[in-house]
Amino acid sequence: MSKHIPRYRHLDQKDRDRLQALRDVGTKQKEMARVLGVNPATISREIARNRRKYRKKKNVKNRHARYEAGVADHKAYVRRKYAKYQGMHIVENKDLKKYIVRKLKKHWGPDEIAGRMKRDQEPFFASKTAIYGWLRTVYGQRWCPYLYSKRYYPRKRTGKAKKRQLIPHRIGIERRPQGATNRTRYGHYEGDTMVSGKKTGSKAALSVISERKTKFIDARKISNMKPRSHSIAVREMIGEKKTLTMTYDNGIENTTHEELPVPAFFCDPYSSWQKGGVENGIRMIRRFIPKGVDINRYSDDDVKRIVDILNAKPRKSLNYQTSYEVMVEHNLFKNKKIPVGEIALEG
C-alpha cells in the first residue's frame, strides 16, 4: 500500500515559526514535513526561496544560512504581491465586486471600504491598494467618478515611460441594448482598425465597421492611428447609414468615442471575439490587402472596390442574400444615392 503524500499548500506565519524552531534544533527535513503536514518538497522549496541570503564577500555559504520566520514571511508576501495583478481577484469574485461598487456609490473611499470590510469580517477582502488598482483598469474605470478625485488615469510616472491611456467614460458591452446583443435589430455596428505591416514603417491604416445583422462592411483609409483620424473616418461611414450603436475594443484610437453621434460600448479586455463581425470583415479584406504590406499602396478607390466585392457576396447566414441587398431591403442607407460601386450592382 502506497504512502499518502500530503497535497501542496501555502505556508503561513505560524508554519514558518514552527519550521524555524525545528530547523534550529537540527530536525531532519522529512520529519519537519511530517510535523507540518506538508510534502518534503514544500520544506525544501521554502528554505531555498525564503531563507536569509548572504553576500559572497562574507564567505558564508547560503545553503547553511539561517532560516528566520519573519524574513521568510516577508519575502513570500513580496513575491505574492508582484506575482499577479492584485485587482484581478475583484473581477473574479462577484460578491466582492458588488460590495465595493455598492460602497463606492455611497461615496466611500477605497481605504474606508477595505477597513470596514475587515472590521465586519466579510467573507472576502481587498486592500485599498487592490481597489485603486482595479479602478484604474478598464474593469473598474466606470466607477471612478464616485471617487472624490474622479480620476481616470494612473499617477504620472517619471522618466521616459509612457503614460497609460484609458478610455474616458467607457461603457462596458454588458450595457449594450438587447437588440444589438442578440442581433434582432438593424443598425448596430462594430468598429476596428487594420494597420500596415510594421516593417514598412508606414502609419497608414484602415478604419473598418461592420453591421452586426446584415454583415455589411465599410472601410476608410486613414493616414495614421491617431484617435482623431479614426473618429473622423467612423463618423463619415456611419453618417451614411442608419446607426444605433457602435461596439469597440479598448484600443487608444477609440478614446474620442464621445464625438460619435451614437453611443459606443466596449468589449471586455482581450475579448475580440465579442465583436466577431468586424474581425471577420478584416480577415476578408486581408485577402486583398495581405498582412505586412503598406496600406498606402492602395488608393481610396481600391479600398472602395474591395468593400463592394465583399458586400456583393451571398451569405449563408442571410439566406444567400448579399449584405448590400439586405441593407437596401430594410432601407438602412440614409442617402438616396446608395454608397456602393458597380460590382455590387452587377449581381
Low-confidence stretches: 152-164, 339-347
Please tell me how large the radius of gyration is.
29 Å
Helices, by number, come to: 14
CATH fold description of the largest domain: Nucleotidyltransferase, domain 5
- Proportion of residues in β-strands: 5-15%
Distance between the termini: 76 Å
What's the β-strand tally?
Answer: 7
The global form is elongated
Tell me which CATH architecture of the largest domain applies here: 2-Layer Sandwich
Instruction: Write the element-wise H/E pattern from the N-terminal end onward.
Output: HHHHHHHHHEEEHEEHHEEHH
- Secondary structural class: alpha/beta
- In percent, how helical is the residue content? 25-40%
Number of domains: 3
CATH superfamily of the largest domain: Ribonuclease H-like superfamily/Ribonuclease H
Widest sheet: strand ordering:
3-2-1-4-5
* Largest sheet: number of strands, sense, barrel closure: 5 strands, mixed
Overall pLDDT, averaged? 83
Describe this protein's structure.
The protein has helices at 13-24, 29-36, 40-50, 69-83, 88-92, 94-105, 110-119, 128-135, 178-181, 227-238, 276-285, 300-311, 323-329, 342-346; strands spanning 188-195, 205-211, 217-222, 245-248, 264-266, 314-315, 321-322. It has 347 residues and is an alpha/beta fold. A five-stranded mixed sheet has the order 3-2-1-4-5. The longest helix has 15 residues, at 69-83. The radius of gyration is 29 Å and the shape is elongated. Mean pLDDT is 83; it is low at 152-164 and 339-347.
